Please model this.
Amino acid sequence: MPSSRHSRVTAVIVGAMMLASSSIALSSPARADTPTDAPETVTWSVEPADEHGPTGEAWTELTLDAGQSVTEHMLVTNRGRGDVVFHLSAADGYFTESGRFNMLPADQASTDAGTWITIQDSIEVGAGQSVLVPFRVAVPANATPGDHPAGVAAGIRTGDSTIGVESRVGFRVMTRVSGDLAPALTVTDQTVAYTPSWNPFLPGSLAVTATIVNSGNTRLGALPRASSSGPLGLFAADTTLAQIPEFAPGESRTVSVAIPDVWPVFVTEARTIVDSVPLDGAEPLPAVSASTQTTLWTIPWSHLLLIAVLALAIVLLRWRGTARRAAVSRMIDDAREEGRRDGALTKTGLLAVLIAVIVAGIVTSEAVPSFASAEPGTVSIDVEVTSRPPDAPGPTTATPTAVPARGDLALTGPTLDPGVALVAGALVAAGAAAIHVSTRHRRAGASARRSRR
Model:
């Protein structure tokens, strides 16, 4: 009998389907068991029951020891208006990606709990009637502990001897074999890919894909999440994925997620972590978790490009500054050299002028007239009288010498040589020319420096 069940609900599974609707293709040449006068549309339901009638449960859960067997029941109700022969079957069960239970199709052989169930092949149910169908679950002696999903169903077949279509309605039979329960999860086959943002001021994203495996012996729910971080745990990011509602031992789920806001920091650790989730109405199990980690390169190309551009700009600015300083230094050196040349030229001109002035002064001083020195208003005449010898002629008359008037100069000494004057003038002209040329050079140099700036 069931040991742990979901909350009691009305568990009438109604199969309202057209024979041409989606169904299971059969490779066997079996003919339809439905009477030839059966209506085109058949409606029926299948639900768990005991020897007295329906239990009201959604499915049957059993806890048995290895080698133990038990008889359970299913209630098949024909809700149509004609008699129908239903084909009965049992098969291994599995959970879909959405967490819904399903059975293996008839063309796939069961290998686990589906082989433990023995049920009659078919049953005829009258219109509007229900039939209680027993089935036996026998656990092999060598069965491993843990959960083993299977299912039982009632269906109808149609088609010819080559292709058949089967439509089934049933419920799960979950058998837990007693023993050590070992819930476990494993994360495998993780792949990661980083997509950078070419805007250096925005982060990129990390795509993570991994496979979550129920590696234990009990059915579980699982909550996966993905995370990433840089060196020393910097720039950590975490994203929670959709919960895996339920999956059986040995089943796996592939999950994918894009982690946003992941900054490229050269080396990034990507991890997928999964934690078990308790199932409603199921026996509590120890919590388990698993994780896997992948290291990948996250090169910040846009940031490196920006740094390269900034470095190039700094180098160009420094080069330009060095060039400007070198140009200024050259201009200063040129100005100094020009100043030295102009200064030498100016000194030469001044020296020439000075020499000319000195020469002219010397020559002029030699040509200055001498004035008679006498007190104002006084004229002195010195006469030397000597005795006349006896044989000298008679007295003679002396010619008076003109005495310069008061204020007049008596010119004495040599006169100015014209050649000397010519040399002095040439020296003065050369000095003036040198000074003029020096002045023009200074003005031209200042103008050139202003234009270079």
About this structure: Helices lie at 301-366, 418-452.
